[in-house]
Structure formats: structure tokens, C-alpha cells
TrEMBL record:
GO terms for cellular component: early endosome; endosome membrane; Golgi membrane; plasma membrane; synaptic vesicle. Proton-coupled chloride transporter. Functions as antiport system and exchanges chloride ions against protons. Important for normal acidification of the endosome lumen. May play an important role in renal tubular function. The CLC channel family contains both chloride channels and proton-coupled anion transporters that exchange chloride or another anion for protons. The absence of conserved gating glutamate residues is typical for family members that function as channels. It catalyses: 2 chloride(in) + H(+)(out) = 2 chloride(out) + H(+)(in). It comes from Melopsittacus undulatus (Budgerigar). It is found in: Cell membrane; Endosome membrane; Golgi apparatus membrane; Membrane. GO terms for molecular function: antiporter activity; ATP binding; voltage-gated chloride channel activity. Its main location: membrane. The keyword Repeat applies. Belongs to the chloride channel (TC 2.A.49) family. ClC-5/CLCN5 subfamily. This is Chloride channel protein. Signal peptide: none annotated. Keywords: Antiport, ATP-binding, CBS domain, Cell membrane, Chloride, Endosome, Golgi apparatus, Ion transport, Membrane, Nucleotide-binding, Repeat, Transmembrane, Transmembrane helix, Transport, Ubl conjugation. InterPro entries: CBS_dom, CBS_dom_sf, Cl-channel_core, Cl_channel-5, ClC.
């Protein structure tokens, strides 16, 4: 049974935690708010409880005023509609930028190989649209000239090959160097994928400038340059960062999102969904990706708005039509034959390969990134990009499957060979007498297929290793497309092997029941698609969102079961080797304060074992409620680096009164010195309702009760740390105070009641950094107003039901009333 006193003492019935409901005398600060008070410094964590309470207070005030006048009613309606308007703007901007990036990257990628005489702004495909060449020579139209044809007048011979090789490497180096120089000079936050940092920001961490306008501009430009350089990276992950930048910037147009960090994070969750929507042309997958992979707090309202933002973004991209095929995606496929149950075996093998590849990549990439951070290598980002680009370009050009863009490679690997396909992958020995309509039977592989197989094997080896060194460099770099390319190559190789096995050994028991001679049994493109999903799942550990993205990406709705089998197998295998996905591993590498909700806490410790200060450390730094001067408080601030301080009754009686933030103290004292007469270093600071008695000659006193959190979240020193971890995860606390000598039965106590009876001295402070995995009936201190702010519903006069968790916790008054406390 969890208990609380049957009545509250005078003056403690209200909460003043930086924005909770309270009486006018205790909320004097909110009547004249100081600029900066209640805000957060860079690299700090927001207070979710306070931010949500502020928004509820704001909404309650608007609702009450809406009944007073027509203008107030209009303001109330516009406030309710502003969220949907913001989603519309985010979708339009994100879709437009994605279309611009797709078109620019396609053009600049082709620029490495040649130029269009009809218009230099046309890429190779668009340049040849109006050409009268035959279908088999459609890539050799006279309007498109390679660099050797343009410079030498012909494109044949060794010298022409060397010139094209040289121009390819030069353009790749130019694009990558321009990208890294722009990132280094204008927006250092524009490098990398951005998803690890966005996950951390959505969990409540502040990183100023990471979602700013300069980051958006530079990331958009350098993303085109990095993709065009031919490096083993993709644009899909960075597009999530671009969309979140759009959401953060547009939030400043609306007051309720500009001034509330928790509301802004709801918008960023929807923006992340819009980013995946335009990256893959998968609006539903985008919503699920935001929910499964990046979001920390995802209420139902955010789900609806994410869906709307993803819809608008996908519609905008479809209107721009960057691929010229009237579809959202480049990988659209149409397979003519269904899959057979026995094919689940090779699909599961692809899942095992994806899991092994994912675990290998994560360990190798993290080791390399750690080396970059701890050695001189990290001091030369431009040189690193130059070397990796040069090696990639030199190795990529001789092989046509690495020379083409990774997106085009995946599209070709997914393709189901038809009669008119001229790719090497489709050079089979044709028997047109057995052809029925568009369906081609399984055929013997021709010389072109065997050539393509060893070229793809070399491409696989190159992609596996070069991606390890590319991801994490100081250029925008996504991981989705390189991971999918590795899986697609492996899948296509396995698919062709299965196809030839079925062709030459159709009488084997495994084929005899469903694959007769002359039938179209095996679809190699399907194996490539399943392999791509497996490798992407092994690296990111996505499951539900991955499957939905893949069938939206390819249009292969009929192949959900193979995708599910491969994705689940890859996750199981990868989790058996290492529990973290690539984004969680980078969060840990960078030291961000992120509490992973999926990670289990296995240590059997108590709050007293983890709190600061430790048992043998100096006493806790505290501020007394009415006996310290301005000079004393400023001395504490200068000598310590804590983000806040417990306020106690006195040095002798360490009874908890509340908690005050360091930033609010600094701003309030500086403002008082400038604007309030008589405030000097010897002025007494007090946090009580009434000023303490002092001699008449004393200088003016400074009242700071308005910035005091009178109901900080507290636990007893005997609280198990797994409970504390759950509290931090589910409520998003900034800190949690640890008290000692509370009620002897360790049931619920309230800080106000403890202060009133003098029973709960403050003993320590817990923060998110203290309960990270390597560091955590219990007592939890709540007041009625705090319970309301946390979403607790009042049932009767003295009974609460927690609606935000799965378990219903009832709070009932003790039989002895006030005498419960020692």
C-alpha cells in the first residue's frame, strides 16, 4: 500500500515547479517573468514534467478565455489548428528539399562521366529522352558525350579510358573536398547521419545549433556533394536530419512550440517521419520508423500528426517527380511469380548473413570511430575524406557495378529480367519457343551473367570494407543505402545460384514438387530485396518499420512474409552478438545522456549506492531557505558545476524545502542587482513566503521563492535502482532527490509534508548521468498538484490512478493521518 497524509499543511497545497499551478503569492515570478528563467543551457536535459505542465496551464488559460470574447475564441481555434498547419509546412518544405536533393545528386553523379550537349543541366537519362536511338543503344545517344569524346573526339581506346578514369577521380575528389570544407567552415553539425543526435534530442537533450538554419543549408548542399562523389554512403539518414531542421526552424513561427521544449519534440518526431517518407517514398514506414527507432515520447496525437506530415511530404515529392517515372521511389519492382514455402530456407540464410554483417559492421565502425576520436586522425578530417574518396574512386571505376550510383545498383539488382533487358545480369541463353507472354522461364546463365557474378562479388567485398571507414567522416553520410547494397548484392548472388540449381537439377526432391522444367520458379531480384532488408535490419535492428519501408519502397506487398522472416532472423543473430544497433552504439560512443528504454537494468543496487555525493564524499552542497547572502550563493555557484541545488531549512536541520536550478539563480541574482535597489553582496536571499527577522540596518533582502521548485521528485535512499531507472525513463526527470529517515514503512511521502513535520532530511541527488547502465515497498514523494501534472487522475478525494503506465497504482490515505510521519 502506498500512502500519503490525509491533509496538506497551509501554504503547501500548490506546486511551484517552474510552471505548475499555484496561488498568486507563490507564483509571483510568473506574473513578471524574467527572460531566461525556466530555459535551458546547451548540453542540458529538459524537464519533461515542467514543460508538459506549462503547456497544460497555457491551454487551460486559452480555453477559459475563449468564453469571454469572439477574438479569444478565434485565438483558441487558431491555437488548436496551429499544430496541423505546422505539419503541412514541414511536409511541403521537406518534400521540396528532398526533390531538389534527388535531382541535383542524380545530375552531379552523371557529371563525373560526361555532359549533355543539349543542356548541361540534364543528367544522362533525361538527356537521351528525345533521342532517336534504338532501345539497345539508349545509353549511347549522340546528345550525351563522355569526357573523352568531348576532349579527344572519340571514346574508344586505352587513352580515352584513362582520361575518363582521371576525370571520374577528379570530380569525386572535388565534390568530397568541397563538402568537407563547407561542413568544417560553416556547420560542423552537418556531418554524419544525424539520427543518433536526433534520438538524443528527442529524449530531452539540448544541442544548440544542431537543428539550426545554417545546419539545414549546409547539410542540404553537402549531402548532394557527398552522394555525388561516389562515396559509400546514402542520403536517406541525413534526410531525416534535414526534415528535423525544417521542423525546428518552422517551430519558431508558433509561440506554443517556440517556448516549450516538450511540444517542440513532438514536432520533431513528426518531422523525422516526414524525412523517412521522402527518403524512401514510404509515408507509413516513416511513421513507424519515428515510433520504433527515434522517438522517446510519442503520444497518440503525435502519431496522427506524423501521419499527416509524412503524407504531405510524400505528395510533394510525388508532384516534383524527381525520378521521372511518376513514382515515389527508384526501386519499384514487379515480380511475376509468387514465392514458394521452401524458399524460406535461403531467405533465412540471408537473414543470418544480414545479422552477421550488421554485428561485424557495428563493431568495426565503432572501433574505427573511437580511434578517430582518440588519435591524431581526428585532427585531419579533410585529409581523411580526401584519402577515402581517392581509394573509393580508384577502386570503383573499373567495376561498372561500383562505378554507378548505389541507388542505381540496388535498382538493377532488384530488377526482374525481361525480354528487352540488356543488362549483363539478364544475359541468359534464351529459348523463345518456351516464352509465354512476359513470363520468362528459368534459363541457363550466359557469359554476361557469369561476368556480372564475379564483378558483383568484388563489389560486395569493396562495399563491406569501405563503408566501415566512410560512415562517421566529416561529411553527411547515411547508412541505409550502403547496407541495402551489401544485402542486395549477396541476395542477387544467392538468387542466381538458386535459379541455376533449379534449372539444372529440377528433378531434385526440393524442386520436384513445385519447379518443373521450363517453368519460372526462382526470382533473383526477390532474393536481392530480401537480402537488402536483412542487412539493413542487422545494422539498425529495425523490424516492423523496416518491413513496411521495404514493401512501400519496392511495391512488393506480396512478399511481406519473406521480408519479415529475414528481418527477424537478422535481428536475432545480431542481438546474439551485440545488443546495440549502430545508432545506439554511436550515442554511447559520443557520451550522450540517453536512457535506452529497451535496455534492461540488471544491477541490484539502491539509490544510496548511486547518488551524488557518495558515502565518503564531502557533504551535499545545499542552500538554506533564509540565512544565506547573495555572496554566499554566488560563491557556491562559482565553486561548483552542479545544475541545481537542494534548498533546506538550515545547516543544522537538513530538512528538504525544495530545489532551485543554477541557471535560474544566476539570472535572478544578476537581474536583481541591476533592477532592484539595495541588493548588495550582503543581502540575504530567502525562499520563504515571509522575510526572516533582521536588524533594521540590514540591506534589502532578495526574495527568490518564485524560482523554487517546492515539490521536487524524490525517493528514499533504500529505493531499488531499477525503480529509479523506470522513473527517469517514463517521466523524463532532470534530477531526483534522495531523502533519508522518512516514514519507517518506506511508503509514499511528500516533500511538503516532510518539511512540515520536519522528518525528511535531503541526503543526495540523482541525475540521468548517475543511472546510465554502468553506474541503479520504495518511497516516492508526490504532491496532489504534482500528481495532476504527471497525468494522474483524481478519483474521489484522496485516491489517484496512474493513467500513463500499464499498472494502476492506487494512493490511499493512512489511517493515522498526520501522525504517520516520524
Amino acid at each position: 500500500m502506498l500512502s500519503f497524509p490525509s491533509s496538506s499543511p497551509p501554504g503547501f497545497s500548490s506546486y511551484n515547479g517552474g510552471g505548475m499551478n499555484g496561488t498568486s503569492t507563490m507564483m509571483d515570478f510568473l506574473e513578471e517573468p524574467l527572460p531566461g528563467v525556466g530555459t535551458y543551457e546547451d548540453f542540458n536535459t529538459i524537464d519533461w514534467v515542467r514543460e508538459k505542465s506549462r503547456d497544460r496551464d497555457r491551454h487551460r488559460e486559452i480555453t477559459s478565455r475563449s468564453k469571454e470574447s469572439t477574438w479569444a475564441l478565434i485565438h483558441s481555434v487558431s491555437d488548436a489548428f496551429s499544430g496541423w498547419l505546422l505539419m503541412l509546412l514541414i511536409g511541403l518544405l521537406a518534400g521540396s528539399l528532398a526533390g531538389l536533393i534527388d535531382i541535383s545528386a542524380h545530375w552531379m553523379t552523371d557529371l563525373k562521366e560526361g555532359v549533355c550537349l543539349a543542356g548541361f543541366w540534364f543528367n544522362h537519362e533525361h538527356c537521351c529522352w528525345k533521342s532517336n536511338t534504338t532501345f539497345t543503344d539508349r545509353d549511347k545517344c549522340p546528345e550525351w558525350k563522355s569526357w573523352s569524346q568531348l576532349i579527344l573526339g572519340h571514346g574508344e581506346g586505352a587513352f580515352a579510358y584513362i582520361l575518363n578514369y582521371f576525370m571520374y577521380v577528379v570530380w569525386a575528389l572535388l565534390f568530397s573536398l568541397l563538402a568537407v570544407l563547407l561542413v568544417k567552415g560553416f556547420a560542423p553539425y552537418a556531418c554524419g547521419s544525424g539520427i543518433p543526435e536526433i534520438k538524443t534530442i528527442l529524449s530531452g537533450f539540448i544541442i544548440r545549433g544542431y537543428l539550426g538554419k545554417w545546419t539545414l543549408i549546409i547539410k542540404t548542399i553537402t549531402l548532394v556533394l557527398a552522394v555525388s562523389s561516389g562515396l559509400s554512403l546514402g542520403k536517406e539518414g541525413p534526410l531525416v536530419h534535414v526534415a528535423c531542421c525544417c521542423g525546428n526552424i518552422l517551430c519558431h513561427l508558433f509561440t506554443k512550440y517556440r517556448k516549450n521544449e516538450a511540444k517542440r519534440r513532438e514536432v520533431l518526431s513528426a518531422a523525422a517521419a516526414a524525412g523517412v517518407s521522402v527518403a524512401f517514398g514510404a509515408p507509413i514506414g516513416g511513421v513507424l520508423f519515428s515510433l520504433e527507432e527515434v522517438s522517446y515520447y510519442f503520444p497518440l496525437k503525435t502519431l496522427w500528426r506524423s501521419f499527416f506530415a509524412a503524407l504531405v511530404a510524400a505528395f510533394t515529392l510525388r508532384s516534383i517527380n524527381p525520378f521521372g517515372n511518376s513514382r515515389l521511389v527508384l526501386f519499384y519492382v514487379e515480380f511475376h511469380m509468387p514465392w514458394h514455402l521452401l524458399e524460406l530456407v535461403p531467405f533465412i540464410l540471408l537473414g543470418i548473413f544480414g545479422g552477421l554483417w550488421g554485428a561485424f559492421f557495428i563493431r568495426s565502425n565503432i572501433a574505427w570511430c573511437r580511434r578517430r576520436k582518440t588519435t591524431k586522425l581526428g585532427k585531419y578530417p579533410v585529409l581523411e575524406v580526401f584519402v577515402v574518396t581517392a581509394i573509393t574512386a580508384l577502386l570503383a571505376f573499373p567495376n561498372e557495378y561500383t562505378r554507378m550510383s548505389t541507388s542505381e545498383l540496388i535498382s538493377e539488382l532488384f530488377n526482374d529480367c525481361g525480354i528487352l533487358d540488356s543488362s549483363k545480369l539478364c544475359e541468359y541463353v534464351n529459348d523463345f519457343n518456351s516464352t509465354k507472354g512476359d513470363d520468362l522461364p528459368d534459363r541457363a546463365a550466359g557469359p554476361g551473367v557469369y561476368t556480372a557474378m564475379w564483378q558483383l562479388a568484388l563489389a560486395l567485398i569493396m562495399k563491406v570494407f569501405i563503408t566501415i571507414f566512410t560512415f562517421g567522416m566529416k561529411v553527411p553520410s547515411g547508412l541505409f543505402i550502403p547496407s541495402m547494397a551489401v544485402g542486395a548484392i549477396a541476395g542477387r548472388l544467392l538468387g542466381v545460384a538458386m535459379e541455376q540449381l533449379a534449372y539444372y537439377h529440377h528433378d531434385w526432391a526440393i524442386f520436384s514438387g513445385w519447379c518443373s522444367q521450363g517453368a519460372d520458379c526462382i526470382t533473383p531480384g526477390l532474393y536481392a530485396m530480401v537480402g537488402a532488408a536483412a542487412c539493413l535490419g542487422g545494422v539498425t535492428r529495425m523490424t516492423v518499420s523496416l518491413v513496411v519501408i521495404m514493401f512501400e519502397l519496392t511495391g512488393g506487398l506480396e512478399y511481406i512474409v519473406p521480408l519479415m522472416a529475414a528481418a527477424m532472423t537478422s535481428k536475432w543473430v545480431a542481438d546474439a552478438i551485440g545488443r546495440e544497433g549502430i545508432y545506439d552504439a554511436h550515442i554511447r560512443l559520443n557520451g550522450y545522456p540517453f536512457l535506452e528504454a529497451k535496455e534492461e537494468f540488471s544491477h541490484k543496487t539502491l539509490a544510496m549506492d548511486v547518488m551524488r555525493p557518495r558515502r565518503n564524499d564531502p557533504p551535499l552542497t545545499v542552500i538554506t531557505q533564509d540565512s544565506m547572502t547573495v555572496e554566499d550563493v554566488e560563491s557556491i555557484i562559482n565553486e561548483t558545476t552542479y545544475s541545481g541545488y537542494p534548498v533546506v531549512v538550515s545547516r543544522e536541520s537538513q530538512r528538504l524545502v525544495g530545489f532551485v536550478l543554477r541557471r535560474d539563480l544566476i539570472i535572478s541574482i544578476e537581474n536583481a542587482r541591476k533592477k532592484q535597489d539595495g541588493i548588495v553582496s550582503t543581502s540575504v536571499i530567502y525562499f520563504t513566503d515571509h522575510s526572516p527577522p533582521l536588524p533594521p540596518s540590514s540591506p534589502s533582502m532578495l526574495k527568490l521563492r518564485s524560482i523554487l521548485d517546492l515539490s521536487p521528485f524524490t525517493v528514499t535512499d533504500q529505493t531499488p535502482m531499477e525503480i529509479v531507472v523506470d522513473i527517469f525513463r517514463k517521466l523524463g526527470l532532470r534530477q531526483c532527490l534522495v531523502t533519508h529517515n522518512g516514514w519507517k514503512r518506506r511508503d509514499l511521502l511528500f516533500p511538503e509534508a516532510c518539511h512540515w513535520q520536519g522528518s525528511s532530511p535531503c541526503w543526495g541527488v540523482l541525475g540521468p548521468a548517475d543511472i546510465l547502465p554502468n553506474s541503479l515497498p520504495p518511497g516516492i514523494h508526490l504532491s496532489e498538484s504534482t500528481a495532476r501534472s504527471l497525468g494522474l487522475k483524481i478519483i474521489g478525494s484522496e485516491q489517484f490512478v496512474l493513467e500513463r503506465t500499464l499498472k494502476l497504482i492506487q494512493f490511499q490515505p493512512p489511517a493515522t493521518g498526520r501522525d504517520t510521519f516520524l
